Amino acid sequence: MNYSTIKKTAVAASLVAALGFAETAQAQTPTVFGGRSQYRTWSIGVQGGITTPNTILGGQNAFGQRVGYFQNKVGEYYGLTIRKQFSHLFGLELEGNRGRIKTYNHDLVTTPENNLGARSAETAVNWAASLNGVFQLGTIDFMRRENAVNFYAKVGLGVMAHNPVQFSGNDFTGTEVYNNEGKWGQEVFGDREATGDRDNRLTGYVPVGVGVKFKLSEVVALNLGYTMNFTDDNLLYGPARYDGKQKFSNVYGGLEFTLGSRDKESLTFTNPVATLYDELKDPSLRNEVEALKQRVSTLEGTVDQLSKDSDGDGVSDKFDKCPGTPAGTVVDGSGCPIKFPEPQQLTEGSSAYFAPIQFEFDSSVLKTESYSTLDKLAKELKDSNGSVSLDGYASAEGTEAYNMNLSKDRANAVKQYLVNAGVSASSINATGYGEANPVASNDTEEGRVQNRRVEIKK
Predict the structure, then answer these.
(1) 263-293: buried (b, 16+ CB within 10 Å) or exposed (e) per residue?
(2) How do strand 428-432 and strand 388-392 relate by DSSP bridges?
(3) Which residues pair with 223 in a beta bridge?
(4) Alpha carbon separation from 379 to 419, 421, 422 (Å, rounded)
(5) 3-state SS, one letter per residue, for 55-111
(6) What angle do CA 31, 37, 40 make, to 5 degrees?
(7) Sign of the alpha-carbon dihedral angle for 60, 61, 67, 73
(8) How far apart are the first and last CA of the chain?
(9) Residue 411's pLDDT band (boundaries 50, 70, 90)?
(10) What φ, ψ does residue 396 adopt, rounded to 5°?
(11) Rounded CA gap, 417 and 409, in Å?
(12) Are the C-beta atoms of residues 331 and 311 closer than 8 Å to each other?
């Protein structure tokens, strides 16, 4: 086992330990990014306020006179909401309202339907229902996981049932000059004739609004808002001076109640970005982080201890059976020196050979310590114009076919070195013999090291 293996093993162990610790901490303390199931996402609300026959966008309705942004007549408006929050940014809301819209004109409004003329009109909204998308726009306190104040905008699509009544007086008194109750159902818009038996006229509308919510407790929030309602109706206030799609707005205040277990946070007031600051304000989380750091530090110390190699032979002290080997000594997996036959050169014509050229496991790359032997061989061959045989071998690891090719590569690597040194390629015979002719046992690492060789024969 070398240093690289030790390091990888220790790092893997530290990651497993860290992940296990993190999962334990997460199981104990829910995090913001754990999904909607850990939050309360349903809420109901009650609200009440006033209506005006125009909007802050300006303009005027077809009946009443425009005075600034608002007319000086207001009506009551109240209702209920049911909302499902899908994220900290978006929710869907079902809203239902009921109330009255009032408008008037200083001059008489005379039409074919109200020959006596009218000065004021009051529209009873018997019910109005819409489905709204609610978009939360921002927060006040960014340093808290749950915010105290949320701004929002909403837009939706709805239907209302209403009946307008026009009066001859400007204070919604006097003669009723127009009231179509009980006759709605078959309106003809060209001359506004109406025959039917419904008490209310059905009109589509688009609510567009903004608001702000103040968190009063874990369950209750104060809700304030303003909504502009754009209708698809030119009879919202009854017959008027000219045809045109009418509009009105409402200002409201109310209370919103979050449903579900109080052990869970309300998703409406949750700010996931603020969890980045938890370590600054949450002692328990900070203690968990410090404990994790300590465990990682301990693991790093263990890695350093396991990887310590005092004699620099590539085998850590823990596994080194021969400590203190001199620098540059070739060692086996236990850190003990490998003994090679001493280089020798016999007389010309002898069948003896130079010391074998050794190779690393599964490698045909020459070691630098082989260069001196090969340089002496190259000089001798050039001086004598002699020839040489290079017999390559491999240890018995892997398949025989693979080891045969490996032994040929080793013999050719030695041949190439000699050719580069100036020896004629024709005087060199390089042959691979695979696992044949072992000089030591392949059952031990020391024996396999000796079998990874190229023999030099003259």
Answers:
(1) eebbbbbbbeebeeebeeeeeebeebeeeee
(2) parallel
(3) 213, 254
(4) 11, 8, 9
(5) CCCCCCCCCCCCCCCCCCCCEEEEEEEEEEECCCCEEEEEEEEEEEEEEEEEEEEEE
(6) 95
(7) negative
(8) 39
(9) very high
(10) -85, 55
(11) 12
(12) no
User: What are the pLDDT digits (tens) for 377-390?
Assistant: 999 999 888 899 99
C-alpha distances out from residue 293 to 290, 302, 386, Å: 5, 14, 68
CA 204, 210, 214, 219 dihedral sign is positive
Query: Contact, 7 vs 303, CB < 8 A?
Result: yes
DSSP state of 53: S
Please name the residue that has the structure tokens 């008037």. Answer: 104
Question: Buried b vs exposed e over 198-229: b needs ≥16 C-beta within 10 Å?
Answer: bebbebebbbbbebbbebeeebebebebbbbb
User: What's the predicted TM-score (pTM) here?
Assistant: 0.53
In the block, residue with structure tokens 């701004």: 151
We find that the CATH architecture of domain 338-457 is 2-Layer Sandwich (3.30)
Token match 């020459």: residue? Answer: 366
Domain locations in the chain as residue ranges: 31-278, 338-457
CA distances from 161 to 50, 100, 130, 190, 201 (A): 18, 11, 12, 21, 5
Tell me the one-letter amino acid at 298.
Answer: T
31-278 belongs to CATH 3.30.70.1560: no
User: How does 428-447 read in b/e, with b if 16+ C-beta sit within 10 Å?
Assistant: bebebbbbeebeeeeeeebe
404, burial (CB in 10 Å: exposed 0-12, middle 13-18, buried 19+): middle
Identify the three-state secondary structure at position 154.
Answer: strand
Percent of the chain with pLDDT over 90: 40
Distance, CA of 270 to CA of 257 (rounded, Å):
16
Query: What are 255's two structure tokens?
Result: 């209370």
Supply the pLDDT for residue 249: 94
Sign of the C-alpha dihedral computed for residues 273, 274, 275 and 279 taken in this order: positive
